[in-house]
Specification:
The chain is of the alpha/beta class and 223 residues long. It contains eight helices and 13 strands.
Amino acid sequence: MRVGTEGTYPPFTFHDKDGNLTGFDVEVTREVAKRLGLEIEFFETQWDAMFAGLNAKRFDVIANQVDLTNPERQQKYLLSEPYNFERSVVVTVAAADDLTALGEIKGKKSAQSINSSYYVLAKENGAEILPVEGMAPALELVKQKRADITLNGQLAILDYFKNQPNSGLKIAYKDETKIGSGFVFLKGNDDVVAEFNRTLNDMRQDGTLKALSVQWFGDDVTE
């Protein structure tokens, strides 16, 4: 089976220090293929050309943190069950109180990249925006207590915490609204999708999916 993936998107699909392709999505795909007795070959492709490659049948499936809630994708392709979920989170210094609702950020200084979806979410909930260029500067402002909070995606923040275990920051609020990511196939592959879904369910039940999540993110993002 031919698998389209970026290979430049850590911690999901990237090359390690020895040049080997790895990452959460890559290793989930390898485990599914192993259980199904499939030989797989990864085709590294830029994101902008990923769906064109699938449409042209240069590969059989995409494994690249594809958002399964996109209406156009739902209509045009066959989508697997999700193997992980993304949520919006609020990050604060470790000593700050946890939040019980997103509305509690009203009036707080929030460091956000202008025009990102998290900028919009923070603004809609009444935060005072401190504009920055990217996640790292936003987290730095929170560490320096020049900002009270920053909003971002759970997966990126968990990856940051895994690599910066002494950051002095924490997730103070996790939104319950979740967006699943999974495999994408061309229509007409119903039997293959069913086998992938069955295998993902087996991996969820026996703890393999959770173990891979903890390995890559330090937490379970599969539920």
